[in-house]
Amino acid sequence: MSFIAFTLVTAVASVAPSRPAIASGPRTLEPSARLGVRQISERSDLSLLRLRGGEQQSTYAMLKPDIAGDAATVEAVKEMIAAAGLTLEREEACQLSAEECEAFYAEHAERPFFAALVAFVSGGQVLKMELSGDDAIAKWRALIGPTDSNKAREEAPDSVRAKFGTDNQRNAAHGSDSTESAARELARMFA
Q1: What is the pLDDT of residue 20?
Q2: What is the pLDDT of residue 166?
């Protein structure tokens, strides 16, 4: 080793604070007000180190037939997704059968709009997407806005439904409403 390199290493070693070795055993996250991040205590899994943010989640998102076939609109929605800090993990354009829509919307089977909803969603191409990010479920739900597109135009004018939806049924997009729904819908739609 050269004299210059030895001097540099010696100087850095003399001013660098010593750090205790990471012990094995249970590991926990501790908040750090000074740094504004969660620090890892006795943790070798650095994937858990995160800046302030919500829970890392995946959610199911679907663009419905009223917009899924329009390339410019799909691109505009994807730009909105990226601007919201969400990552598009996978996507698939397809046309769902009536049976697939009935199974997907089974929780609404007794509602008066069920048959019309199934006919609408199975009547054209949809774009199925998996989105991920901090609080992905809540972020996507906020991004798409209220279910009724007319209400969305009043309450969330920059939302997907306000910009591209028509009414309460032809409302441009679907989003999972809970972690359980997201897991179920992702498994069903990307089987």
Answers
A1: 38
A2: 96
- Is there a domain that residue 142 lies in? yes
Residues 101/121, Cβ–Cβ less than 8 Å: yes
Question: Phi/psi of residue 51, each to 5°?
Answer: -70, 165
pTM value is 0.73
* Residue segments in the chain with a per-residue pLDDT below the cut of 50: 1-50
The residues assigned a catalytic role are: 174
Question: Is there a contact between 189 and 58 (Cβ–Cβ < 8 Å)?
Answer: no
Q: What pLDDT is stored for residue 54 in this prediction?
A: 73
What residue type is 26 in one-letter code?
A: P
Structure-token pair, residue 102: 């009935």
Please state the domain count of the chain.
2
Inside any domain, residue 95: yes
φ, ψ of residue 61 in degrees (nearest 5) = -130, 140
- Beta partners for residue 37, in sequence order: 32, 51
Query: Is residue 17 included in any domain, yes or no?
Result: no
**Does residue 32 sit in the same domain as residue 72?**
no
